[in-house]
Specification:
The complex is a heterodimer of chains A (174) and B (127).
Chain A lengths: L2 H4 L10 H14 L10 H22 L1 H11 L14 H19 L4 H28 L2 H32 L1
Helix pairs in contact in A: 2-3, 3-4, 4-7, 5-6, 5-7, 6-7
Chain B lengths: L4 H8 L14 E8 L4 E9 L5 E9 L2 H14 L4 H4 L4 H8 L6 H21 L3
Antiparallel strand pairs in B: 1-2, 2-3
Helix pairs in contact in B: 1-2, 2-5, 4-5
Classes of the chains: A mainly alpha (174), B alpha+beta (127).
């Protein structure tokens, strides 16, 4: 299913989140199962199915990485649920170093400067990768699509790091 | 989801954690990661002139299954030739640790780490 089509949005990475939210509410109202309660069994079933599709689509389009994966899948490149290991030594070495920095935070007497340092590094890299992802997806060529897939894989590591850092911050405050 | 006793044992008492000096010519390093969960694994093998793995160390940031998988392979590769080590399959690791299907990728990661380390060794020793 083409989630962009469902939401009447152009199939591209750049997306106005406010517009997405508005479309979501409109579609939700239109296909709310209560509105089809008087219809035939088949109508009711289809409304329920469509309401589920609308929810799935909204959650996928809202998150940049899922949106990018969906866009690639529409172009015939499926990378969600892949089990393949990522092997790029320089990138992984940098991930290892950031993980070590995070490990230091949990042991530091004054963790805040380290938290700031880690946060800055993660945000900076994430921003740069998201820009690259946008450019690769906009190019819309098979070669650039593979490039985009690799950038998504890298971004997943950074989203995970960000999660870990947020967890550490919470623990520090407790 | 419950971890098996073997996973818990390796997780609580990981074998061979640490690093060798990277510039040591007998040390081969394999780095792998799993985008889906953000796990990162480093496996280092100390290989003698006869191509036998004398020692192994690992460092893994990830879930218990990823740590257990890498800890287990450091035990398994010791004393093996690099060709024998290359034959270790993720299914052997998964079976030994009784990994559930959702954690199979951790064993794939450990298998790929061995392969990456061996590739690093071959590249640096020119064959």
């Amino acid at each position: 299913m083409n989630y962009f089509q469902l939401f009447h949005l152009p199939a591209q990475f750049e997306l106005d989140l406010t517009e997405l939210g508005t479309r979501y509410l409109e579609l939700q109202r239109q296909f709310h199962p209560d509105k089809h309660a008087a219809g035939s069994e088949r109508d009711k079933l289809m409304a329920v199915q469509q309401a589920a599709n609308i929810n799935d689509a909204y959650h996928s389009l809202k998150q940049p990485l899922l949106r990018a994966e969906h866009l690639l899948a529409l172009r015939g490149l499926k990378i969600s649920n892949e089990q393949r290991s990522f092997m790029e030594p320089a990138f992984l070495m940098q991930q290892m170093e950031l993980r070590e920095l995070l490990a230091e935070i949990s042991e530091a007497a004054d963790p805040y400067p380290l938290i700031d340092e880690a946060d800055q590094q993660i945000q900076q890299q994430k921003k740069a990768l998201l820009r690259q992802l946008q450019a690769a997806l906009d190019a819309n060529s098979p070669e650039q699509d593979h490039q985009a897939a690799d950038i998504i894989r890298k971004l997943k590591f950074f989203f995970k790091l960000q999660q870990e850092l947020e967890l550490l911050e919470q623990q520090t405050q407790d | 989801m419950a971890y098996s006793n073997k996973v818990i044992d390796h997780y609580e008492n990981p074998r061979n954690v640490g690093s060798f000096a990277k510039d040591d010519p007998s040390v081969a390093t394999g780095m792998v990661g799993a985008p889906a969960c953000g796990d990162v694994m480093k496996l280092q093998l100390k290989i003698n002139d006869q191509g036998i793995i004398e020692d192994a160390k690992f460092k893994t940031y990830g879930c218990g299954s990823a740590i257990a998988s890498s800890s287990l392979v450091t035990e398994w590769v010791k004393g093996k030739s690099i060709d024998e080590a290359a034959l270790i399959k993720n299914t052997d690791i998964a079976q030994e640790l009784a990994l559930p299907p959702v954690k199979i990728h951790c064993s794939i990661l450990a298998e790929d780490a061995i392969k990456a380390a061996i590739a690093d060794y071959k590249q640096r020793h020119g064959n």
